[in-house]
Amino acid sequence: MRLLRYTLFRFAQAIPVLLGITVILFLFINMTPGDPIRIMTAGQEVSESHLAYLEARYGLDRPIHVRYWDYLSGFFTGDLGRSIHYNRPVSEVMMARIGPTLLLVLSAFLFAVVTAIPLGILAAKRRNQPSDHISRIVALFGVSTPSFWIGIMLIIIFAVQLGWFPSAGLVMPWDAPSDAGLSGYFWHMVDVLHHLFLPMIALGTLQMATIMRVERTQMIDSLQGEYVKLARAYGVSERTILRKHAFQVAQLPVITLVGLGLSTALGGAVLTETVFNINGMGRLLIDSIQQKDYQVVMSVATILAVIFVIGVIITDIAYAYVDPRVTYGEGE
Amino acid sequence: MRDKPLLRVENLKTQFVTENGTVRAVDGISFEVYEGEIVGIVGESGAGKSVASMSLLRLVDNPGEIVAGEITYKGRTIFAAEETEDGDRRLQDGVLSAETVRQEIRGNEIAVIFQDPMESLNPVFTIGGQLREFIELNRDLTGDEARKEAIDMLREVGIPDAEARYDEYPHQFSGGMRQRVLIAMALACQPSLIIADEPTTALDVTVEGQILDLVDELQRKYGTSFIWVTHDMGVVAEICDRVNVMYLGEIVEQAPVDELFYETGHPYTKALLDSMPRPDRTVTDLDPIRGVMPEAIDPPPGCRFHPRCPDAREVCRQVHPEPAEIDRVDGFSHRSACFKRDVFDVGYDESPPLDNLARGESERGQEASEVASGGGASE
Questions:
Q1: Which one of B54, B116, B138 has the shortest CB-CB distance to A234?
Q2: How does it sit in the membrane (chain A) (predicted)?
Q3: Which residue in chain A is spatially nearest to B134 when comparing CA positions?
Q4: Which of A131, A299, B33, B142 is positioned for an S-S bond with B7, CB 3.0–4.6 A?
Q5: Is A231 left (phi over 0), alpha (psi -120 to 50) or beta?
Q6: pLDDT (tens digit, 9 = 90+) per residue, A158-216?
Q7: Closest partner residue to B119 among A226, A323, A325, by Cβ?
């Protein structure tokens, strides 16, 4: 019950934040030089009256606050407007692109968490032994190397030189041919993973390295806690101490890190999609900025902001769930 | 005379190998704990009290290691080893394995209460959950029985509304209440011996009094033996039956508590007593011990206390005194490691006095801030 109230409260709090973000975005996009109609009609003979017709058709002739209001009311009724460049509804354009981005970001995160936490714990347990040193060097490499460079290197080595993995594109799991049987579906999934592997590692390495470093430090800290000493003195096994007593205390900062890492991962996805030629939201955003496709830029940026804010809220809720000292904002 | 002791420690040595050399934190101590008594280990910070008590459970943090000595508990050998000539240790036959010590000694035979109740409980688990885990681990009780036992124990140590507080977290308890929880934890495992490592040091004086009364009462009721580690002679007087005074890794005096206070044998014990206010005597000026205890990495030659001892003579710098029996009270020996007593035949009386007092004067300026106070009450 408290959790539900807290969740609703946090979502209510997020509304002004998101409104602020849309205002700033709208102003910035309209302040940038360039005109979508001119870009669209570049190199063609177009009469002044036709230009005026096009401006009126996309609503660009009206004052900016009216256009913002139109956008906002449209957003809440599910009408994201029409893309100038693609000449299709924005929602349609985005729906086609959001799948690959979600698949990429979520798999990269899964990869990061699943590898980083056990490695961090292992490094903490074997502190200052060779395996600890190796994992620290790998982590240092991971946090200090940009994801696009890792992507390019992966393509050069594993796609171009060795030919083990494809260098571009993603296959969506739900795009299996409709007449495929069970084995056909299996091979389709193999194909999905085959395409996903390199971009997932390119995007996930930074997250993995960051999480691993914090996991290691936190576990070392936690293992030196008095409560661990107490557990040992009462005959608790080292296994249980590692898995339960020290582990749970150490996860608090890791949860924050995973939640906030979502924003950097979305940013990284833009680059990774470009390097691996994936038709996701990131590339859509970059293309639309170049085309001055106001409606698409606004919608993509807003959706990314919504995903980020939701990520932060989920982080806070998870934190309060794991750490009993965090209250659900009830001023105890 | 007494039966066989519950715990016998003989010539225990625990060392820490560091970059700067070997720290002999515990350097050959021997003592016994009999059933139903509270034995004090008292001394300044850094004397090796905590390391000594943790060594009994074979819980010495890296890079520490028990290198020699023998620890026998209820006829079982927790540890027994000899130092070989090349500095290694050789475990003797019949020593319990590390796994056996963990499963059969820690918690269910020997339990501990730590100094800092604020840090000793795990912040992310409920009080009840932690109690129950240790009970289930150390006694043959099912989950429900363990829960009931945990609530009973919380009630026993004076936590009001124990059933409701069972599901609360450590941060919802005050320091004194948390220390009560730790005491409940120790008692709930039904050990025969509880090591209390400065359990009241972090508490304020009124709470300390309540906790000491509680322990006194529970000790009578359950008959559990205690090893009470403290730096506070006041606590010793209040709670202990017999006392071991530690200085720089060694036990310098060992006596029943009244004997220690009234027939003090060792100048260090005397200095500790003089540095605290006493209700049984009129004291106008407290007399703190001069200087600070030297590092255990490089102990002084001869008697380790001689640089700070007002009675030190030349012989104290040359010969290392072993504890020797100077008296017997109620079947317990009173041992002291000081040449002043005539049981030693090393020529103390003929030996020229060391000029400690004069040196003390000249050093007083620079050491004024370092004056060590032995008794907590004088702090």
A1: B138
A2: Multi-pass membrane protein
A3: A234
A4: B33
A5: alpha
A6: 988 888 888 877 777 777 677 767 787 788 888 888 888 899 988 888 889 999 999 99
A7: A226
- In whole angstroms, what is the distance from residue A182 CA to residue B190 CA? 60
Which has more confidence, B107 or B276? B107
pLDDT of A231-271, one tens digit each? 999 989 988 998 888 888 888 888 888 888 877 788 788 88
Pairwise CB contact (< 8 Å): B137 & A236: yes
| Interchain proximity B171–A225, CB inside 8 Å | no
On whether any CB of chain A is under 8 Å from the CB of B133, the answer is yes
Share of chain A above pLDDT 70, in %: 97
What is the value of pTM for the model shown? 0.80
- Angstrom CA distances, A89 to A70, A94, B61, B176, stand at 15, 9, 67, 67
CA–CA dist A174, A176 (Å, integer): 6
DSSP character string of A239-284: HHIIIIIHHHHHHHHHHHHHHHHHHHHHHHHHHHHHHTT--SHHHH
Beta-strand ranges (E) seen in chain B are 7-18, 21-33, 38-42, 64-73, 76-83, 89-91, 110-113, 193-197, 225-230, 242-247, 250-256, 324-329, 332-336
Contacts 24+ apart (CB under 8 A), A325-330: A325/B123, A325/B169, A325/B171, A328/A2, A328/A3, A328/A5, A328/A6, A329/A6, A329/A9, A330/A2
User: For B234, which DSSP code?
Assistant: H
Q: Show the domains of chain A with their CATH numbers.
A: 97-322 (1.10.3720.10)
Question: Which of B120, B153, B187 should one mutate to test binding to chain A, selecting the residue with the greatest count of A CBs within 10 A?
Answer: B120
Cross-chain CB nearest to A234 (options B116, B171, B189):
B189
Strands B193-197 and B110-113, sheet pairing: parallel
Stronger pLDDT, A330 or B87, i.e. the higher one? B87
Higher pLDDT, A184 or A332: A184
Residue A252: closest C-alpha in chain B: B124
Residue B320, both tokens: 């290392």
